[in-house]
Amino acid sequence: MSIEALPPAAPDRSAVPVLEVEELTVTFTRRGERPTRAVDGVSFSVAAGETIGLVGESGCGKSVTSLAVMGLLPRRGVQVGGSVRFNGAELIGAPDRTLRELRGADMAMVFQDPLSSLNPTVPIGTQVTEVLVEHRDMSGKRAVAEAADLLDRVGIPDPTRRLKEYPHQLSGGMRQRALIAMALACSPRLLIADEPTTALDVTIQAQILELLRELVVDTGTALVMITHDLGVVAGLCDRVHVMYAGKVIETADRHELFARPRQPYTGGLLASVPRLDAGRGTPLTPIRGSARDAIPWAEGCAFAPRCDNAQDDCLTEVAGSTVPLEYDGPGRELRCRHPLTYPRQTPAGAPSSGSTDSGSTSSGSTASGAGR
Amino acid sequence: MTALGDVRRRRIDELAARAGQVPEGEGGVSLTRSAVRRLRRDPVAIAGAVIVVVFLLVAALAPLLAPRDPVTQYLLSEIRPGSIPGPREGFPLGVDNLGRDLLSRLVYGSRQSLLIGFVSTVLGVVVGMALGVLAGGLGGWVDTVVMRFVDILLSIPGLLMAITVSVLLGQNQYALMIAIAVVQVPVFARLLRGSMLAQRGSDYALAARALGVRRGRIVFGHVLPNSLSPVIVQATLSLATAIIEAAALSFLGLGDPDISRPEWGAMLASAQDFLSIRPALAIWPAVCIIVVALGFTLLGERLREALDPKFRR
């Protein structure tokens, strides 16, 4: 709980955050089955004009986190705990009406698959104007004109014609642009993008990312980028939260994270990215096992079964707690008992993190190539 | 009885599940338009459509096409026990046991059969869709209550239900229409609800919710239009059933008692006693019923294939 307050935030982050998520938990319950905790004590915050990344492989709780923030999870069979504050107002437990008025107007979301996120039987124009009618009390011609303007702003050529077309008549990139236009219709203060480029080809990906970047710069929107693509993180995010099995396991500024990943999982993720300069035929270095091998956090570090640095104390409670998320140098947090270490670590960060490492950790496993 | 209900329920659910799929790779043509295009190239669909159109024209132009008045009695002197006059000059198909011109009665009968078929199907679709929207749109306990009610209706065999309703409502053509509609209601309710449930979980419904669109608008503007195609198909097929059921009820003596409006089922019923003397009296109305039902069925089946992404080539 006090973790948030501990690390001295970088100067530009002193502004009041647009979104503060604290100790968010999401539990799915089903009759006759053990409840599943999909998100387990996740905390992060985003300020205006800032972009943060939630990174992790499939099933680690990224998307559920975003749906919980937006209040889009079904009410039956789902328990949401913790706190989500938007502009200081608590959203968990807020009435549906309040949430609905916020969604689309002050906070918006862009989804992964632009084709299935658009209604195939309704023209684009109707779908864009719908938001304007709902939140900006526009109607008729004014809404259409504004919709055309929006499409123009996200770079769709000939917007008036496009408004009359159906989703299948647009290219993939244009569909995603249209969705972004819909999300931007009311100049939201927070935009959550859930893998917005996964379904697009590489050149279009770059264009969409560029569009999102411009948007953040121009309007000061807070952007939460959910992705499993480290390239997207490298190009866009100021701060990165790496998630594994429902918990944040490492938080760092972008440069720090790429230069010196501390969690062996983060290290493994970076090492497994194919490199152009690695030469032909060089095998990739994957993280062994799969996300299904995770053990419950209550029994120790969920990543331990796949971790090369794992030792006995990763799987047992130490001093009444399993692996906690701890201060790991300025602007960094880490959930690991045996993190990756570097010969020349920042002098300030070293001692504090060293205290959690019980002795024999520096087993020489340097940054990335460690894998296998 | 329950087993029968189960089979029907399963079939409806299958249809509903299939409707959930969004077709892909349809370059630049909307679903409806491409379906129509494929129907126009399909000889079976064309045959069905031709049959349907011909009978519709006959019904619409009955006063012009029928050679004689359908209720006036002719040739009474030649009708005696054991002999009914057959085809002859002026009476192409002969007369029935009361001396009324058979062809004219068949022509006028098409009006009544098609009218009952259409009205009862429309009634069934409207009420069934209302229940389906209620269940599929609101969900929760409303869904549970509505669907259990629908399940009860479904487990009662159609004809039995129609007979019960028409007995309860008395003998007139409106009671007949309502009786047949009641049988259709649960089918459409379950079909629409199933296909709406599939659509409600879709990405675009979630995306619309993420933009703060009201639930009513999501249900009517997004979910409903995407859930309609199995209902349209089923309605076409139901027309055939409704016409057969109307005939069956008339045959059982539960039809329209007004003798000024000939009806195929009733004609069939009254021909029963004269099968050995003049079988044509039963054969002609039966052929009409079969051909019309066939027309609607062919059209409906092909429509389903045309609207079904799985059958796309």
UniProtKB/TrEMBL annotation, chain A:
It is a peripheral membrane protein. Residues 348-372 have a biased composition (Low complexity). Coiled coil: none annotated. InterPro entries: AAA+_ATPase, ABC_Ni/Peptide_Import, ABC_transporter-like_ATP-bd, ABC_transporter-like_CS, Oligopep_ABC_C, P-loop_NTPase. SMART domains: AAA. SUPFAM superfamilies: P-loop containing nucleoside triphosphate hydrolases. It holds the Pfam family ABC_tran. It is found in: Cell membrane. NCBIfam families: oligo_HPY. This is Peptide/nickel transport system ATP-binding protein.
UniProtKB/TrEMBL annotation, chain B:
One of its GO terms (biological process) is transmembrane transport. Residues 110-300 form the ABC transmembrane type-1 domain. It comes from the Bacteria. Pfam families: BPD_transp_1, OppC_N. The keyword Membrane applies. The keyword Transport applies. PROSITE patterns: ABC_TM1. Keywords: Cell membrane, Membrane, Transmembrane, Transmembrane helix, Transport. InterPro entries: BP-dependent_transpt_permease, MetI-like, MetI-like_sf, OppC_N. GO terms for cellular component: plasma membrane. It is found in: Cell membrane. It is a multi-pass membrane protein. The chain crosses the membrane at residues 44-66, 114-142, 149-168, 174-192, 282-303. PANTHER family: D,D-DIPEPTIDE TRANSPORT SYSTEM PERMEASE PROTEIN DDPC-RELATED, OLIGOPEPTIDE TRANSPORT SYSTEM PERMEASE PROTEIN APPC. Belongs to the binding-protein-dependent transport system permease family. This is Peptide/nickel transport system permease protein. It comes from Geodermatophilus pulveris. The lineage of its organism: Bacteria, Bacillati, Actinomycetota, Actinomycetes, Geodermatophilales.
